Amino acid sequence: MKSFLMSVIAAVVLSSSALGQTASSGTSPSPELSSVSTETAAAAPSISTTVDSSTASSTAAVVSVSSPAADTVAVSSSALPGLTTDYALPAVSTAPAATDSGVVPRPWVIGDIKADGLKNSKLSTIRGAIKGRKGDLYDRPDLDKDIQSLLGLGLFERVGAEIVVLEKRVPEHFRKVAGSDRQILLNFIVKEKPVIRKITFKGNKKLSRGALSDLLSLKNKDPFDRNKLDEDNGKLLSKYHEKGFLDVDIEPEVQTDTAAATVELVFSVVEGAKSRIELIELGGVTAFKPKILLKLMKNKRKKVYFPKDLADDIKKVETHYKNNGFLDVALSSPLVTLSADKTRISIALGVTEGRSYRFGETTFSGNLIYTSSEVAKTVEYRPGKIFSQEKFEETIRGIQELYSDRGRLRTRINPIKSFDPTTDRMNVLFEIVEGPISYVGHVDVEGNKATKTFVLRREIVIKPGDVFRSSRVRRSIEKIRNLGFIDDVDLDLQQTPSDPDKVDLTFDVAEGKPGVLTAGAAYSSVDGLIGTLSLQHLNLFGRAQRASVQWSFGRRVQDYSVSWTTPWLGEHPTSLGFDAYNTRRINPFDTSLSAYVERRTGGSIRLGPRFEEDKYQLNLTYGLARISIQNVQDQFKGVLSEGTSIQSTFSAEFSRDTRDSIWDPARGTRNGIGLQLSGGPFQGDIHFFKPSITNQAHHTLFTVEDWPFVISAYHRGGYVTQFGKTRQVPVQDRFFIGGQDSLRGYSPSGEAGFPQGGKIYSVANVEFGFPLARERKKTIVKFVVFADAGGAWDRTRDFSARIGSGQRDIKTDVGFGLRFVTPAFPIRLDYGYGLNHRNGERLYQINFGLGPLF
User: Fold this and answer.
1) pTM (2 decimals)?
2) CATH number of the domain encompassing residue 137
3) Which is it for the CA torsion 388, 389, 393, 394, positive or negative?
C-alpha cells in the first residue's frame, strides 16, 4: 500500500476558457477536473495546465521525468499560455533522452483505459476515438493527440487525462521488447456538452415546423453548441426574409436540465406582416417601355418583396439590354427603402443605357483544321441584325463544340469586337488558337446504386483510347437517359495526370425510381370513364429489364396485359421481349360506337437488333391470338360475322432514329417502314398483307432558361389487302381514324374516313409544346397545342385531296392538351375540336391516352 501511495500520479487538464480565467487569476482550477491532483498532493506533485480549448491544438507541455522509483519528481517545463505552476505532466518518449539529472525515463505501457464524467456518451466512444490501446506503448505526444481527438468529436466541453502508474509490472518477456516495465491506467476526465432533448417552435404560422426544422444544423440527440445555435437562428431569419417577412423576430431559448445533461431549444417566432412592394422606379430608361422591363422581374409592385430575387431581377434587366444591342449598359446598385413599420418597400434602380449596336462583319483567324466557311456555319446571327449577347455567346460555344468534336478540347476562342463608325456596326473577329488532339483515358461511371455498372457502361459509345468527340459524349448521355430510370447524367472531365494529351471521363448518374405502382381514372368522349391500375418496373434486377402488369377497365373496355423486355442479349444490342394479353372491347363500326364486342386473347414475342449506336433498328414480332366477334348489332349482321378465329401474324419494321430522347424528344427524326403479314406461311384463319410507313421530326424553336419550346410533326400511313381464303379484310384489322391516336377532334364512329373501316389511310399531326414543370433537366408536365389532318378510304380511287366534310374528304381539327411525361406511365389528355363536321355530329372530343402519341 505504501508503495502504491508513493506511485507517481500526473494529471493534465485541457479546459475551456473558464478554466483559463481561473488559472490566470491565481485561484485553483475547476473542482471537477482537479480533484485527483488535490487528493494526491502528499504522494506526488500535482499539476494544472490550463489551456483555452480554442488553442489547445497548438500548445503542448514538454517535460521529462526521473526514475519512477524516486520519491520526488524532477521536472523541467516549457512555458505555456495560462501555465501558473512549476510542474507539468511527465512526458514519455519511445526514444527517451537523458534528463537534467542524468536519468533516462522509461516508456509506459497502457494497462487499462477508463473515463469519468460520462452521462450520455459511452466508454466505447472514448476508446474508439483515441490512438492508445491496451498493451500499447504510450507517450506524451500520443496523449496530446488523443485529447484533441476527443475534443474533435464535439461531444465534450472539456477533456482531461489522469495517468496512474500501476503497481503491477509487465511480464519479463514484454519488458525486453518494449523497454518498459511499468503499466499505467489511462483515465480520461470529461465534461460532456448537454444533449438536445427536444426542439420546439412557437408562433410560426406561415412556415411549418418541418420547413423550419430542415434549416437547422442542430438536431435532436445532437450535442448542444452555442455557435451552431446562433448560426441556425440566422438561417431561420434569412428564410423568413426570403418569404417577405422583414419584420420577423426570433428568440432562441435554451432550457437546461443539469442533472440529465440535456437541453430543450425553444424558438419563439413573431412573424409580423409581409413586406410588399409599393414602388419600383427605373431611372434613365428611354429605349424600352418601363413595363417591358418590369415584366422581366420576379419582384413586382403590390406583390411580396423577395430580397433573394432582386439580384436576379437586375441581371434579367441587364441581359435584356445586352440582347437588344445595348452592350455598354450599366445598372446602379438598387436602393431599397423600407417603411417605418417594415410593411412597404420602395426600389429604385438607375440605368445608364449607352448606345445600341448592330452586328457587322464576322471574320476568323488561326483556323487551320476548318475553313472559314465551315466555321461560319456556327454563327448564330446575321450582319445588320441588332447585336445580341446571347447569340454572340452561342456562337462562341458553337465554335468550341466544332473543335471539341475533333478532339481539340484545348482550343481557345478569343473574340475581338470592334466598332466601325463608317458602317455604324460592330465587327467581330474570332481569334482561334487550335489545341492539340485529346484522347480518352479512363471512362468511369459513378452514382449508380441499384443499377449494375455494366448496364451503364454498355450505353457509353466513347471508349478509352478514342479521340475525344463531343458528339459521341452527348450520344452516350442520351443513351443512358433513354434507359428511362436515370433522372440525370453529369459529365466530369479531367486531364489525365500522367498524360496531358488524355482526358478521363466520369459519367455521374442520378437514379430515379424504377418501379412505379399507379392507379388512376380518366374520361374520354368515346370510352367514357376508364380506370387504370398498373405496376411497372424499368430496371428489374438492376439490369435495365422492363416488366409491367396492367389492368384497364371501364364500361367499354376490359384489358389485362403482361410484358417483359430486356434491351440486350449478352453483349449484343438486341432487345428481346414478350407480351400476353386478354382484352374485351366494344368497338365502333359505321355510325355506331357500339357495333360489336371483340374479345382477343394472345401473346407475342419480340426481337429487336440495333445498329450504329441505336441509330438503326429492326423490330421483328410474331404474334398469335384468338379473336372472337360477339354481340353484333342487328343492323350490321349482314356485314359483320360473329365467330371465333385464330390469327397468326409476323411483323417487321426497319427504322432510322436520331431523336435525342425516346420519351420526350426535342430534336431529331424517326423514319420507319413496316410490314405485317397475317396467315400465309404462318397459318391461321386470317390472311392479309399490311405495309405501313411512319415519320416524325422534332425541332426546338427556342429555349427559355433551359426550358425547350418544341415543334413536332408526325405522319403515318398504311395499306391493307386480303389474300388466300380471306375474302374481306376483317373489321378489326381495317383502319378506323378518329379518337386519341389520330384525329383528336372526331369520334372513330364513322365521322372521319370510310365508316366501315378503310383499307388505306394517311394521318398527319403537328404539335407545339412547352414544359409546365421540369425536374433535373427533364420535363414532367407539358402543355401542347395541335392540329391534325387525315382520312381513310376503301379504295385508292376514293381518295380526295380536298378538305371538307364529305366521306372521301380530308378532315382537320385543332386542340390542346397535357402530357405527363414519365417513362413508366406516360399519360395524354387532349381536347380536340373538329373543323369539318357534318350536321348533327359533336364538334369536340375529349381524349385520354396512355403512352406517347407515336
Assistant:
1) 0.69
2) 3.10.20.310
3) negative
